[in-house]
């Protein structure tokens, strides 16, 4: 299992966090995603054999959210 940390600009309010958690939980290969409301930090545990970092970023961006590393 791999892990990564992204920062999502909009992930500082409850509605956006719920949206982000829904997006990530629906991706095959993602085991867990934790969002820090204070700074928009998103920690993701995933299986790189099922999903790549680029695919994770693209899926988040498709929903109008801005990913920073």
UniProtKB/TrEMBL annotation:
<dbReference type="InterPro" id="IPR006121">
    <property type="entry name" value="HMA_dom"/>
</dbReference>
<dbReference type="InterPro" id="IPR036163">
    <property type="entry name" value="HMA_dom_sf"/>
</dbReference>
<protein>
    <submittedName>
        <fullName>Heavy-metal-associated domain-containing protein</fullName>
    </submittedName>
</protein>
<dbReference type="Pfam" id="PF00403">
    <property type="entry name" value="HMA"/>
</dbReference>
<feature type="domain" description="HMA">
    <location>
        <begin position="2"/>
        <end position="68"/>
    </location>
</feature>
């Amino acid at each position: 299992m791999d892990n990564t940390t992204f920062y999502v600009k909009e992930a500082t309010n409850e509605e956006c966090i719920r949206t982000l958690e829904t997006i990530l939980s629906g991706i095959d290969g993602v085991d867990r995603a934790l969002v820090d409301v204070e700074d928009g930090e998103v920690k993701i545990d995933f299986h790189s054999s099922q999903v790549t970092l680029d695919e994770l970023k693209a899926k988040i961006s498709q929903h109008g959210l801005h990913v920073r590393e």
